[in-house]
From TrEMBL:
The active site is at residue 146. Its cofactor is Ca(2+); Mg(2+). Residues 167-376 form the Fumarylacetoacetase-like C-terminal domain. This is fumarylacetoacetase. The keyword Hydrolase applies. Keywords: Calcium, Hydrolase, Magnesium, Metal-binding, Phenylalanine catabolism, Tyrosine catabolism. Substrate binds at residues 255, 369. Its EC number is 3.7.1.2. Pathway: Amino-acid degradation; L-phenylalanine degradation; acetoacetate and fumarate from L-phenylalanine: step 6/6. Ca(2+) binds at residues 139, 213, 215, 248. Mg(2+) binds at residues 248, 267, 271. One of its GO terms (biological process) is homogentisate catabolic process. It comes from Qipengyuania pelagi.
Amino acid sequence: MNSSPLLDVTHDPARLSHVAAANVDGAEFPIQNLPFGVFSTQGRGRRIGVAIGDRILDLATADRLGLFDECAADVRQAAKCEDLAELFRLGRPAMTALRRTVAKVLDERFADAATVGSALVPMNAATLHLPVPVTAFTDMCASTFHIGRRRGNDAHGQPICPPAFRTIPIGYDGRAGSVQISGHPVTRPNGTWQPQHDGGEPRFGPEPRLDYELELGIWIGGEPNPPGTPISVEQAEQRIVGFCLLNDWSARGIQFWETMLGPFLGKSIATTLSPWVVTADALAPFRAPAFARPPSDPAVPAHLYDERDRASGGIDLAMEAWRVDAVGNRRDLCRTNFRHMYWTPAQMVAHHASNGCSLSVGNLIGSGTASGPEYEAAACLIERIATASAGARLACRWRQRDAARARGAERLSDDRVRRSHGERVTCAEMAGPGEKLGREHRAMRRLIDLSIPIENGVESDPPGNEPEVTYHTHDNTAPMLARFFEGLTADQLPDGEGWAVERVRLSTHNGTHMDAPWHYHSVQDRELPGGERPSMTIDEIPLEWCWQRGVKLDFRDLPDGHVVSTDEIDAELERIGHELRPLDIVLMNTSAGAAYGQPGFVSRGCGFGREATLHLTRQGVRVVGTDAWSWDAPFVHTAKRYAETGDASIVWEGHKAGRDIGYCQLEKLGGLEQLPPVGFEVLCFPVKIRGASAGWSRVVAVFDE
């Protein structure tokens, strides 16, 4: 029997729900996901729900309304329980059947959507709880990159790990009582630690090096194996009923000092996890081959070898950790992928039971820190410190071409922990002794101005479109100032000086500016699920678009007038080792940048047409930028092509792509040659002009140092 989850109609990426919020681009809970959880509302106790868009389907209510009549009696009874324990006990077949029924009643084509609506609860009105009481918690260690980050590489170029690591999955039994739902307060613990990792008089007090670990939680279900009875890898796969994101908090100072028998106080602080259980079926489209063992490694041990597991036991799952401060600013901490794990989930479970250990409902297994090979994929802070001390660069390479980014499984639901001053975080940062968890570490920042000045006499726009600045200086404005104060004369002012003021004649498209979708066309988003809508003006642009991770692509070697293709964009992304993420701000460095202010500037640089623009916006990019006069190829070159071909579709084609997916352009940027490809953020808030097509913007690149 093939134990891997199978693809079926529930995985159709084109499938939509009658819950509108589930169909929004980038929704965390589309109809392809349908994670299970436990919730309560005011006046009603705990019950099982399924997340869909911004709603929770109350399974007990849905059953009472007759929506689950096609399900087996034991499945219906389990769906009406106060937690997921009974459903977990019934195992994967029951969860598969129930998930298919839920998908059917939430489908936009379901005939009785009104009845389903009676069983939907607003997510913001619900309190979420642990899916089941945690009866046992085991934390594994399954990434060579996590273990080897502080040890270096061996003669084969592989991370140095303890001898046992490549022969068996390593783990330890943690404390079930420390497992909490995301949002539970985490207190900086007291313990014994050294001021420096490698020395100093031990002292007792608040942990100085509190850390996070980004992991995948593995929920065990099915009937328990009798004590003394091992299970195979194939059986282990069937025992895994679902996954969640998991943060295993670590007190590094305490951990390093006390480790002799194994983890103790340093790892019993808190384990926080997502309340939603993403079923194994939901992740079926993202199953991948197991980690490719280097030739120098030992063979997979016989009790952990399974052909199907080697072929599809891995999971190509993009994982991220970030911090959000009290005012909503996001800071990325880690971007990794679960496919880098040396051992598969089924191997971890099978080895756990290989000595006859009985695994039962309520058992939770942490995958171990899910670090990848690159610095950016270090899934805890201690790895970053170790790597940085060895001279690693912040702007690192990251390849993640085929990550789980299709509808339905891009995000399991982030593990959020609330800190005392209002931040939402997925980790703790290192702070001084005695500080409460929540003190914000303020890194030194370096800023690079990417804007050009508005000035007279510089070729920055076509003839007749240049800005005009009239300067009024201190020596000729004293009478102007004195008029506001009866009886005051100009010579009574200090040094007889007035004020400096300027009058400017310009358009919203002079200088460095941001274009809104209204500039390109009257409607936008024809291609998106919600359909066509009036284009946004500059005062309607979401602020979150304007402060995001920056990416610079270098096209300075391309000739003037060249229209960049999607293949050329992908080749440049491959060269810099970057995978685009929604809301990345993508800046194009062209030959126009070096020609700013010189004759012919408006005709310099390559451009980006419809194909390249949609290639970016379909990946979630909403702000792009160029150092040229226009995002499209310069008009003089496009005019020649139009004269040759008569093809009107090439006219302003990059701008007109905004009809299909609305986006913003930054034009006439400066200094892009100073930027590395990645490793910085971009701030580009436009001036707010009511109903305007564009707004001037002071664009800045920000580096944490």
